[in-house]
Amino acid sequence: MPTVSSQGEVRIPEPLLRALNIASGTEVDFEQQGNALVMRVVKLRKASRPEDGPKILNYHGSTVTLEEMEAAIRKGAEDSL
Which domain holds residue 68? Predict the structure, then answer.
C-alpha cells in the first residue's frame, strides 16, 4: 500500500498510471471530498514520437527521408577520408 513521503509525495500504482494514461509531466488537480482526496487529470502529456520532432521543435523547414539522410551521412563520411 502506498504511503506519503515526508515531502507529501505518493507513488501512484503502475496499473493506474497506464489506465489513466498518466506520464511524467501530466498536470493533475486535487480536491477534498469529505475525508477523501480526489485527484483529477487536468492536462494529459502526449507521448512524443520521432515523426513529431519538427512540430515539437517548432521547425517549419523542409523535411528529408531516411534514405536522403543516410546518403548525406555516407557522402560526408566519404568526403572526410
Answer: 50-79
Domain-located, residue 62: yes
Instruction: Supply the pLDDT for residue 10.
Output: 92
- Dump the DSSP string for the chain: -----TTS--PPPHHHHHHTT--TT-EEEEEEETTEEEEEEEEPPPPP-GGGHHHHTT--S----HHHHHHHHHHHHHHT-
For the chain, what is the domain count?
1
Q: Could you report the per-residue pLDDT of 38-66, keeping only the tens digit for each?
A: 999 887 666 667 777 777 677 778 888 88
